[in-house]
């Protein structure tokens, strides 16, 4: 596995009812791109607000719901956090993707389809077992240009920073501190 150094400010899209939005327990139960259900804790983070917005649109699309249809009181909140600087598994660069057995077109395969979670989960499991702090990856959410996500499974507990309600962060032009 190749590595890319990352750290600093990241954002978590969270359910407003979660008591601990930076807990990896939510993804451990349901699984995610880099961890299978009932596998291990992962906190899925976004490098910037554009990626966070794209994540919300991606999750709503199969439900035929648009962001403007959401009740702002029940819509996702955005929680800022600081991630420890470290060498994370690289799923961003061509060389990093090749080292993981992923196509250089990731998050799409050669046919233009999104690489399935079942392809990524064994990679995440191997990285977690090897003691890696996480995986930095190109976002699978649609953006005009590739954004980055960080699947964090490091030992250091992430602390919540500023928490913003949906109407404060989601709409372009919203102030995100």
Describe the protein's architecture and organization.
This protein is of the alpha+beta class. The chain has one domain. Strands 1, 2, 3, 4, 5 and 6 form a 6-stranded mixed sheet that branches. The longest helix has 13 residues. The radius of gyration is 16 Å and the shape is globular. The termini are far apart.
What would you call the shape? globular
In which range does the helix fraction lie? Answer: 10-25%
How many domains make up the 3D coordinates? 1
Instruction: Identify low-pLDDT runs.
Output: none
Task: Sketch the topology as an H/E string, one letter per element.
Answer: EHEHEHHEEEH
CA-CA gap between termini: 34 Å
Oligomer designation = single chain
Secondary-structure content class: alpha+beta
Cα radius of gyration in angstroms: 16 Å
The count of strands amounts to 6
Main β-sheet description: 6 strands, mixed
Total count of helical runs of at least 4 residues: 5
What fraction strand? 25-35%
Average of per-residue pLDDT values: 92
Quick structural summary:
This protein has 177 residues and is an alpha+beta fold. It has helices at 25-30, 49-60, 94-99, 117-129, 166-169, and strands at residues 3-14, 43-46, 77-91, 134-138, 148-152, 160-164. Strands 1, 2, 3, 4, 5 and 6 form a six-stranded mixed sheet that branches.
What are the SSEs and their pairings?
Layout: E1 3-14, H1 25-30, E2 43-46, H2 49-60, E3 77-91, H3 94-99, H4 117-129, E4 134-138, E5 148-152, E6 160-164, H5 166-169
Parallel strand pairs: 3-4
Antiparallel strand pairs: 1-3, 2-5, 3-6, 4-5
List keywords for this structure.
six-stranded mixed sheet, 23% helix, 177 residues, 6 strands, alpha+beta, single chain, globular
């Amino acid at each position: 596995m190749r590595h890319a150094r990352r750290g600093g400010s990241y954002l978590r899209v969270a359910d407003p009812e979660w008591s601990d939005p930076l807990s990896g327990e939510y993804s451990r139960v349901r699984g995610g791109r880099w961890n299978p259900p009932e596998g291990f804790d992962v906190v899925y983070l976004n490098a910037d607000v554009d990626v966070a917005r794209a994540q919300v649109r991606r999750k709503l699309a199969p439900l035929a719901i648009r962001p403007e249809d959401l009740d702002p009181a029940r819509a996702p909140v955005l929680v800022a956090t600081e991630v420890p600087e470290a060498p994370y598994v690289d799923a961003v660069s061509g060389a990093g993707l090749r080292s993981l057995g992923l196509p250089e077109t990731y998050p799409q395969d050669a046919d233009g389809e999104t690489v399935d979670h079942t392809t990524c989960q064994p990679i995440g499991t191997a990285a977690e077992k090897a003691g890696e702090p996480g995986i930095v990856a190109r976002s699978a959410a649609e953006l005009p240009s590739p954004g980055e996500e960080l699947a964090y499974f490091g030992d250091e507990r992430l602390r919540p920073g500023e928490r913003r309600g949906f109407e404060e962060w989601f709409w372009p032009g919203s102030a995100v501190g």
